[in-house]
Design brief:
Shape: globular
Number of helices: 10
Structural class: alpha/beta
Mean pLDDT: 89
Oligomer: single chain
Helix content: 40-55%
């Protein structure tokens, strides 16, 4: 009989690439993870991993087992959801990993709706950039992730996840109010400017650099901040220009800057849960509220 805890360990190692990183995600010691993997190999009767420097890679049999692990763990999620539904599911806690703009735009309004419609459902919020929240979801640190499409993200066909599209958010140009192109700026016209934006690794960084390259240039990102209020403040101080997601500009003090719409770049925001958890009674009302709030945003 294969121990499902060892299947979770195998998936964590496959996701993170090293025993040490998987151990940290699972809140275990590297020795405990190694022992789980050795035990699983004995249960299966085949080598599942090969070492490559500091990392590990799945063998052919390991890849077969990972596919089955995803199916088994999804089925366990479904079982937990059905048991929770049977026991009413009227009260409990849901942990959501979500980036800051979406916390303001959709998650906070959804929580306000839940407090009236489902007062027994408590939402715990973890502020996490899009490239971190999915890892937190898959590692079991969160029950739901609100994230964005980004380079290297699991795609819609990923067998570990179920996804709910929420909204597509355009980016706007932000320039100093006295910039010579303040009234007529286009993306190509700003090719020689100093740019301000998030750090590499932030999904927004990828959107900005891709949009600029599509316009024929590589942006000179001289100033970096993951806080869009700081980005706009730097623009207002004349330090450069920026592309900022439209919802991040809502309710923001825009003194000293002008905002111009520009065609093209956008970020697609979606909610994700572990596959099999779709029917969980604590997640259903939250997903419903998120869908309704996202539909009323009017980001265009």
């Amino acid at each position: 009989m294969i121990d499902t805890r060892r299947l979770r360990t195998l998936r964590a190692v496959a996701d993170h690439g090293t025993v040490t990183a998987a151990a940290a995600a699972l809140h275990l010691t590297p020795s405990a993870v190694s022992q789980q993997l050795v035990a699983l190999e004995h249960e299966v009767g085949h080598r599942l991993l090969t070492r490559d420097g500091r990392g590990v890679h799945l063998t052919a049999v390991g890849k077969i087992m990972l596919g089955h692990a995803n199916e088994v763990l999804a089925q366990l999620e479904r079982a937990e959801a059905e048991v929770a539904a049977y026991t009413t599911g009227e009260a409990g806690e849901v942990t959501v990993a979500c980036f800051a703009t979406a916390i303001s735009a959709v998650l906070s309004p959804a929580i306000a709706v839940l407090r009236s419609a489902s007062p027994g459902v408590h939402v715990r919020v973890l502020d996490a950039e899009g490239d971190h929240s999915l890892a937190m979801l898959l590692d079991g640190e969160a029950d739901l992730a609100i994230t964005v499409e980004y380079r290297g993200a699991p795609d819609a066909a990923d067998r570990r996840l179920s996804r709910l599209p929420l909204y597509a958010e355009p980016f706007d140009l932000v320039l100093p109010h006295d910039h010579p192109l303040a009234e007529s700026a286009t993306l190509p016209s700003l090719a020689s400017e100093t740019w301000i934006g998030p750090y590499p690794g932030n999904p927004v960084h990828d959107v900005i650099t891709f949009a600029c390259r599509q316009a024929g240039f590589t942006p000179n990102l001289a100033h970096c901040s993951d806080d869009f209020r700081a980005v706009v403040a730097l623009v207002g101080a004349g330090a450069g220009v920026a592309l900022v997601p439209r919802l991040a500009l809502r309710d923001m003090a825009l003194a000293g800057v002008v905002v111009r719409q520009t065609p093209g770049p956008e970020r697609r925001v979606f909610a994700a849960i572990r596959r099999g958890a779709d029917a969980h009674p604590l997640l259903r009302p939250l997903l419903s509220s998120l869908r309704a709030i996202a539909g009323s945003l009017g980001t265009g």
